[in-house]
Amino acid sequence: MIVKFHARGAGRGSGPVDYLLGKDRARDGATLDRGDPDAIQDLIDSSPYAKKYTSGVLSFEESDFDRTTKDKIMSSFEKALLPGLDADQYSCLWVEHRDKGRLELNFVVPNVELLSGKRLQPYFEKADKPRINAWKIATNAILKLHDPDDPINKRELTTPRNLPKPKHEAARAITDGLLSMAGNGELINRQDLVIALEGVGFSVVRQTKKSISISDPEGGRNIRLKGLIYEQDFKFGAGLREEIETASARYRATSQERIREARDVYRTGVEIKRAENQRRHPRPEPTHECISFEKLALDSAERSACFGRLLEREFGGREKRLSRINWKSANRARC
């Protein structure tokens, strides 16, 4: 599974809703899983904010899951995206697509907190990406999903924007992506490799017989890339396939450590985001008293006792009045 957030978020609500479900709400391969499309569209249209909604997709290599698994994934993602908010504080539309032969769970969240009408910011990449990425890593591992980060499955080259800060981790991430591209036949020689690096934004500053160096996007010393794939006479062959398989085995061997790290990052990220959401969007104080069952029972007993006293006064007083009337009648009769 991969998680992707779309850059769009302005315009009318019909844009994302019609794309996901079709203008006639009958798009082939689309299924409404959660949410009210008309309500989502109205919330987006009535929003006074520049970015009116947040949208994205959970994309799976698997063709489908049972309903219980899909519900668990959607609920878990909402908690990861919007910790600290209750279900009545936000609205989320979920639409699944299966028209590409694999499952996609698409989501749209209007950027408005429902109880106050204030602007809601579900996702800010610089702050929120580590938390969401950690959720992805843990979910892929727990549910044993197809892992796009495994070098044998990797399809995209790591970009400067997504590069890990430690240089050895950065070099490994770049190498794993290039190995996958070579394994798919996209790289045939070193020239193809250099073009691929520069195509995603890296600056190749040095080439030797056995290595390539790129400038560090964060500054400082260059990142030196070594290995079979970086050699001057590199050509795709059996040796490269073996290197890809070795990288994949190394990746799987460190899975437990990677899951532990992801959980730590996730917990920390959730605590920060929860505190931020609860500070910005506190629930309003209730305007009525919450009455417990015990209090209801006590009030009922008090009302019964009070009613009993009223009856006693009413009927007791009536009996006394009747006694006085009977006494007066008896005295007149004697006279």
TrEMBL record:
Superkingdom per UniProt: Bacteria
All copies of domain MobA/VirD2-like nuclease, residue ranges: 51-125
Pfam families: Relaxase
Protein name stated in the entry: Protein C
